[in-house]
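Thread amino acids onto this structure.
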């Protein structure tokens, strides 16, 4: 096979020439894969721009959440809330103390960061650019067993990468596995945070053969996201159901549902179930079979629970004991959305009432949660960390997670599901009067339509 020169390789990529395989195969076979430097032959400047994305920085400025400093960036790097109760700063990837069995392990909130940890979250410069793990997202033959931390000769904790020629020859757009290896296990384990798996059995889009990036289409590695009240950091680009389906997606006898789209979000009818962690207690950790401790967690499987419905105008109320949607039926901006409700118990500062962070290393080794609070307070430069931990007060925080996956068409809610007298909506909580509720739950609203649809289906 004739070797493709770097110049021709760049031209092919710049022109968007894609055949059955990624251009440059012969170059990689001949010279091997040298990390981002190899990718830069065809995609010059990409590594530098990637350093300015949320996937690298784990933070961004946030303009739709209350009680934040508009000049600062927020995200997994520095947020404190009770799904995680820690962040990249206090729970940086490290080796935890030995447990009672004399065993230790590496752990940290930033284990999914696409770098090598030596160049860590938010780092910049040539070394950071060279540390990017391009293949963890872009190879369909990536050996994820190599994505494990170790100590180098200098005693630094390093996150391993698969930079093999084999992995580099399997370049493609990110698959579901490439995305979900991190996103499915967020929050402390599989099905904990979001409670969804993206398979043909659980999501209508997956059943059509779609992958995550078909909706979350990146430009310059900036990933469009929705407006989940819990998901603050963003790349400044958004994605919505209407991007593909429009404001009037229903046809035929179902066209009447188009009358609802101004006030009812698509997710409300098409995501009738949720799952994942219902509650988590960071003040009490349980010992597992491996001898290490984890926060006590009450978890449900995907599609195991029903959501809660609320008006949402895409701005977020952020208090010490509540993170959730702002909105009302009268503000002219809100729609009814479905949410997964999560409650987390953690320690609050006795003096200020603010939620405290926790370093997971001490409790993971021996279950001592207050030692974790003290360590985090010390890392964050708080005055008298020992006293902060000793006097910390346990408390609960409620968090609303947006329901944006587990989409169904065949099991979507219909008129009866919402407007029946025992329907899924609590109209009173949604701001409707008794007279309005009586009208909204009368079969006269939907009887003829559903009878016709029933005839069609039978």
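Threaded sequence (458 positions):
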């Amino acid at each position: 096979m004739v070797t493709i020169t770097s110049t021709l390789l760049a031209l092919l990529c710049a022109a968007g020439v894609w055949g059955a395989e990624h251009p440059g195969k012969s170059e990689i076979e001949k010279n091997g894969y040298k990390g981002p430097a190899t990718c830069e032959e065809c995609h010059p400047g990409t590594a530098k721009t990637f350093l300015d994305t949320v996937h690298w920085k784990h933070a961004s400025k946030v303009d739709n959440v209350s009680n934040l400093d508009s000049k600062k960036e927020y995200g997994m790097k520095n947020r404190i809330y009770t799904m995680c109760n820690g962040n990249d700063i206090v729970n940086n990837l490290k080796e935890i103390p030995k447990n009672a069995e004399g065993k230790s392990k590496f752990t940290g909130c930033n284990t999914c960061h696409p770098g090598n940890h030596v160049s860590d979250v938010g780092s910049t410069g040539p070394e950071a650019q060279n540390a990017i793990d391009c293949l963890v997202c872009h190879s369909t033959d990536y050996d994820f067993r190599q994505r494990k931390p170790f100590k180098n000769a200098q005693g630094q904790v390093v996150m391993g990468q698969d930079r093999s020629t084999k992995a580099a020859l399997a370049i493609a757009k990110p698959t579901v596995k490439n995305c979900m290896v991190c996103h499915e296990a967020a929050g402390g384990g599989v099905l904990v945070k979001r409670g969804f798996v993206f398979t043909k059995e659980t999501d209508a889009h997956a059943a059509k053969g779609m992958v995550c990036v078909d909706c979350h289409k990146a430009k310059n590695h900036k990933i469009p996201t929705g407006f989940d009240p819990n998901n603050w950091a963003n790349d400044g680009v958004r994605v919505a159901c209407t991007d593909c389906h429009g404001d009037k997606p229903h046809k035929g006898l179902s066209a009447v549902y188009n009358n609802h789209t101004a006030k009812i979000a698509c997710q409300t009818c098409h995501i009738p179930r949720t799952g994942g962690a219902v509650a988590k207690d960071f003040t009490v950790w349980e010992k597992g079979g491996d001898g290490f401790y984890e926060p006590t967690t009450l978890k449900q499987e995907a599609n195991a629970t029903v959501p809660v419905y609320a008006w949402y105008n895409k701005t977020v109320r952020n208090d010490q004991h509540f993170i959730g949607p702002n909105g009302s039926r009268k503000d002219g901006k809100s729609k009814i959305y479905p949410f997964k409700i999560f409650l987390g118990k953690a320690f609050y500062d006795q003096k200020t009432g603010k939620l405290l962070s926790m370093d997971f290393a001490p409790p993971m080794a021996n279950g001592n949660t207050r030692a974790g609070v003290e360590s985090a307070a010390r890392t964050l430069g708080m005055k008298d960390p020992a006293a902060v931990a000793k006097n910390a007060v346990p408390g609960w925080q409620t968090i609303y997670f947006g329901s944006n996956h587990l989409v169904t068409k065949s099991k979507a809610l219909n008129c009866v599901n919402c407007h029946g007298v025992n329907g899924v909506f609590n109209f009173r909580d949604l701001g409707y009067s008794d007279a309005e509720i009586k009208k909204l739950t009368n079969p006269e609203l939907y009887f003829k339509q559903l009878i016709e649809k029933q005839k069609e289906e039978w």
